């Protein structure tokens, strides 16, 4: 610097840069923008280099960096690219949290949850991937204990593996449906009656062959015997409101189960259907599909529940 004309007071620097005078004074006090000189009266003066330094500090602050981080940049302890990269990582976490919060609030606005339900939803949705997986692992371990799931070739092992398949993390921008699905799944596996029902199915499945009813395997399998017939004929009967016990209902049953099937075989089929048909178990698989961004299979349970009622009615009728 050669003359005082090249120096600026705090007020002049504030007007030149648009940064408030009190902010310049504070940054100067903590050493981020030290004065270049002092006037005869002791006032702080700043040159063009100080003005450029001030502009850098303002820019970094607008990007959200803390004053301590800015100090390391200005002292060359860290480069601007290094700081920027670290800050991007922090922003990514903050953005994800905001998106998750938005998804929770969207779900609340749409479904009208109470304050208590909203708090539970928020807490559950913000669990880490490991914490969420642990909830499901504890559920599966309890359900399949003693069913041979430790043997990878055992029937229960494949079902247990499927029931553990949570996504590694909620999407960066989860939909309200995915937030709701996770909360519903957490509530479902915490329900003791559901745990007991699922365990009874797992134990019964140890000695059972593949069933045509939903709930036996990972999902209702379209290639299982009787599946397509049930979906087609019983599904149409459900849609039309046909009484399973009525003559029309029994006629539909005859398209699924051969009319000449002995009563003991019908009774065995009925027991198997009653054991492995459960709307909540089917819902478990649907929720996993939502969380994993997969197509949600249509519900097969209503058709199989209609078939169960029709079989009961056929067994209660006198033999012709």
Helix content: 55-70%
- What is the percentage of strand-forming residues? under 5%
- Strand order, main sheet: write it out: 1-2
Taken in chain order, the helices and strands follow as HHEEHHHHHHHHHHHHH
Question: How would you describe the shape?
Answer: rod-shaped
- Low-confidence runs: 209-220
Radius of gyration: 34 Å
Number of strands: 2
End-to-end distance: 115 Å
Main pleated sheet: 2 strands, antiparallel
> How many separate structural domains?
3
* Structural class by SSE content: mainly alpha
Q: Provide the residue-averaged pLDDT.
A: 80
| Separate helix tally | 15
Describe the structure.
The chain has three domains: 4-74, Multidrug-efflux Transporter Regulator, Chain: A, Domain 2 (Orthogonal Bundle); 95-204, no CATH class; 227-316, no CATH class. Helix content is 63%, strand content 1%. By secondary structure, the protein is mainly α. The longest helix is centred in the N-terminal third of the chain and has 32 residues, at 80-111.
């Amino acid at each position: 610097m050669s003359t005082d004309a090249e120096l600026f007071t705090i007020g002049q620097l504030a007007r030149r840069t648009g940064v408030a005078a009190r902010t310049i004074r504070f940054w100067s006090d903590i050493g981020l923008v030290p004065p270049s000189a002092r006037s005869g009266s002791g006032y702080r003066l700043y040159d063009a280099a100080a003005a450029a330094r001030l502009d850098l500090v303002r820019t970094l602050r607008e990007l959200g960096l803390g004053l301590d981080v800015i100090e390391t940049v200005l002292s060359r302890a860290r480069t601007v690219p290094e700081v920027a990269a670290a800050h991007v990582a922090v922003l990514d976490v903050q953005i994800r949290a905001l998106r998750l919060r938005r998804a929770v609030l969207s779900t609340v606005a749409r479904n009208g949850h109470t304050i208590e339900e909203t708090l539970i939803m928020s807490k559950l949705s913000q669990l880490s991937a490991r914490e969420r997986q642990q909830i499901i692992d504890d559920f599966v371990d309890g359900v399949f204990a003693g069913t041979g799931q430790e043997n990878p070739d055992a029937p229960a092992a494949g079902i247990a593996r499927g029931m553990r398949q949570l996504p590694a993390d909620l999407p960066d921008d989860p939909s309200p449906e995915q937030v709701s699905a996770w909360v519903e799944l957490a509530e479902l596996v915490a329900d003791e009656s559901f745990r007991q029902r699922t365990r009874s199915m797992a134990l019964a499945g140890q000695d059972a062959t593949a069933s045509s009813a939903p709930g036996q395997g990972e999902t209702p399998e379209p290639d299982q015997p009787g599946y397509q017939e049930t979906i087609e004929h019983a599904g149409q009967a459900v849609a039309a409101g046909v009484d399973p016990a009525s003559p029309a209902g029994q006629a539909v049953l005859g398209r699924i189960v051969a009319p000449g099937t002995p009563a003991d075989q019908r009774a065995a089929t009925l027991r198997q259907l009653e054991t492995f048909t459960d709307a909540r178990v089917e819902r478990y698989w649907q929720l996993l599909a939502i969380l994993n961004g997969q197509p949600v299979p249509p519900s097969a349970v209503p058709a199989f529940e209609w078939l169960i009622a029709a079989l009961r009615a056929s067994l209660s009728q006198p033999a012709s």
